[in-house]
Amino acid sequence: MANIIDGKTISAQIKEELKEKVTAMQAEGRKVTLAVIQVGKDPASSVYVGNKKKACAYIGIHSLSYELEEETTQEELLALIEELNGRKDVNGILVQLPLPPHIDEGKVTEAIRPEKDVDGFHPESVGKLCTGQPGFVSCTPAGIIQLLKRSGIGIAGKECVVIGRSNIVGKPMALLLLRENGTVTIAHSKTKNLKEVTKRADILVVAVGKPKMITKEYVKEGAVVIDVGIHRNAENKLCGDVDYEDVAPICSAITPVPGGVGPMTIAMLMNNCVESADSCFLGGRPV
Ligand code: GUN
Fold it and tell me: Whole-angstrom Cα distance, residue 144 to residue 177?
């Protein structure tokens, strides 16, 4: 039976480390401030934003909350970002996605100063990750690297397969695994013979967005399986993109849903916030 990679415990460790660091910074008179912007009242976004603010409070990060009306114009949102970009007391800016359809997410992402881009979504942050320069890294893939490292799972020389090519997870995940000297393949919805490709993986990262799609037929015996998906089934129970009961018996380690990748995203956001005030970019490396 597989080792269960415990994201709850690992994320709690990271948050403790960050709390200590923030306490030390405060003792030197340095404060960490994150501005969180939500446009509209999407219930899932409200839960995520609430959790982010709670994590800030726990660690000692000051959070500024902007809850804007659904009807807010793009110009108004860009004007707020511009104001926050210019404020010396604001270290990080986060605009919760998705935005209402009348607002261009790309324009908003690009408006945030890269030095305050704690989500790591700005094209400059992505370019720096791609070229190996220090910069902010998207939180979910950075969290997965921490899960692997802190579970003693080596990446160098391993066959790594990432299923999914989103800008937020799949692509930065592949770049981070490459930075750790993995041999990386990105598979996606047009990949032919997906099972053959995924069966090559020593480390399989699944971000397909389909409940329980990955069964043991997709997994090599002894592989490490990381499940990025989160879904609610008909009985209101949470499940991932991986059929956990089917896959766990044949792999060496696996992340559960919930309690695997999910808690790491907020922990790494907190890490990025601390870095935004510290100006030392460790994104994706040990904190
Ligand atoms: N919506 C869903 N996940 C995220 C995230 O990581 N950051 C932001 N800004 N919005 C999201």
Answer: 10
C-beta 96 within 6 A of ligand 1:
yes
Domain 139-263 fold is Rossmann fold (3.40.50)
Fold annotation for 29-118: Rossmann fold (3.40.50)
Angle at 123 between CA 137 and CA 267, to 5 degrees: 20
Most ligand 1 atoms within 8 A of CB, residue of 65, 94, 96 to mutate: 96
pLDDT digits (tens, 9 = 90+) for 187-211: 999 999 999 999 999 999 999 999 9
pTM above 0.90, yes or no: yes
For CATH 3.40.50.10860, the residue range(s) in the chain are 29-118
Query: Which of 37, 97, 122 has most ligand 1 atoms within 8 Å of CB, for mutation?
Result: 97
Q: Beta-strand (E) ranges in the chain?
A: 3-4, 33-39, 62-68, 92-95, 159-163, 183-187, 203-206, 224-227, 231-232, 238-239, 253-254
Q: What is the pLDDT of residues 139-176, one digit of tens each?
A: 999 999 999 999 999 999 999 999 999 999 999 999 99
Query: For 274-284, how does the pLDDT look when each residue is reduced to its tens digit (9 = 90+)?
Result: 999 986 444 43
| 148: its two tokens | 């692997």
Q: Where does the chain hold its CATH 3.40.50.720 domain(s)?
A: 139-263
Atom of ligand 1 nearest to the CA of 265: 6
